[in-house]
Amino acid sequence: MKEATKKKIKDETLDWIYAIIYALIFGTIIRLYVFETMMVPTPSMVPTIQVYDRLFVEKVTYEFAEPNRGSIVVFWTPFVDIRAQQQLRTFDRFMDFFAPAQFEDHVKYVKRLVGKPGDTLRLVPVEETFWEDIKNGEIQSTPEWLDFIIDYYESVDYIPTQIKNKVSKLEINGEILPEFENIYYLRDAIFEDPKFFDYIAYPDQYRYEIATSDLFFMYKDNFTGRLIPAKPTIEWYREMRDTLLFTDFYENELSKLDLPSLIFKDEEGLVNIKIPEGYYFFMGDNTLESQDSRFFGFVPVENVIGTTFLRIYPFDRFGKI
C-alpha cells in the first residue's frame, strides 16, 4: 500500500474519531443543559401523555423562570423508586448516567404542578348537583378515570356514596383557579389523613393508627378491568416504604419540616396542605392511577428538570404536548 494511501486512511480515521468525540462532548453538554428525553412508563397523565410515550424535555426555561401552576413538569424523584427503576429501558439508563450525582439512582416523574411555595391546597368534594348534571347531560367533559368509574357501576345512581365523596376539585388559596376548572381529583392519601406520610415512613410504629384509620383507596386493576376499593394494610405501607425507600426520604427531607403546621384538618374536616418555601406539590391528571404528591409529599424546587414540549414516539402521535 502506498504511503499516500496509508496517510489518507489514517487521516480519515482520525477525523472520524475526532467527530465522534466532539459529538459525545456536545451531546453531553446539550443533555446536561438544553434538553433530554424520557419514556413515561405509567398512566398517571392520561390522556395528555400515554403509557410508553417518549418525550423531549426542555430544560432551559426553568433556569430563568419558575413553572406556573398548571404546567406539566418533569422532575427528579426526591426518593429512590425501585419499581420505576426496573421499568427503565437501556437507553434511559444510559442517559441517566449523566444525571447530577445527587440524583444517582433516582428516576424522572412527569406531573402537573398544583402547588407553589406559600400556597394552601384543599381537595373539596364536588356538590351533589355535579352528579345530577352528569346524569342530565349538562356536563359533557369528564375525565377518562371518572368515565371508567361511572361505566363500572353502570350509572351515576349506583356509585357508592363513599366513592362519590372522594371526587373533588382543587382549591388553591381558597379558590378554584381557571386552569383547574375542568380538572378533578380523588381525595386520597395525605388529603384524607394528615399522618399518612408518617404511616409510610414508620408503619410498625403506627400500627394502631393504620388499623383504625378510615382511609381507603380505589385501584384500577388493568388485568381484570375491575375497580377495587381497599383499605391500605400495614403490609401495603411496608411495601411503599421499601419500594420508595421512603424512610430515608422522610428523615432526610420531610422531617426537617414542621409537618403538623403544614398538614392539618380545618373546621370542615378537610385536610389543608401548606406548601413550604423551597418545595412544590405535584399531581397527575389521571388521579385514579397516579402516584403523586398525595402519596409521597413535597418535592424540592431543585429537583425540577424542565417541561415537556414534544412527543417523539409513537410516531403516529408525534407532535407538541
Architecture overview:
The chain has 321 residues and is α+β, with helices and mostly antiparallel strands. Helices cover 33% and strands 22% of the residues. It has 13 helices and 14 strands. It has helices spanning 3-33, 61-64, 82-87, 90-96, 128-135, 144-152, 161-164, 196-201, 207-212, 234-243, 246-252, 259-262, 293-296; strands spanning 35-39, 54-58, 72-76, 108-115, 120-125, 167-172, 184-186, 217-221, 226-230, 263-265, 271-274, 279-283, 299-300, 304-313. The strands form 3 sheets. Strands 1-2-14-3-4-12-13 form a 7-stranded antiparallel beta sheet. A 5-stranded antiparallel beta sheet has the order 7-6-5-11-10. Strands 8-9 form a two-stranded antiparallel sheet. The longest helix is centred in the first third of the chain and has 31 residues, at 3-33. The protein is globular. It starts with a helix and ends in an 8-residue tail after the last strand. The model is unreliable at 22-26 (pLDDT under 50).
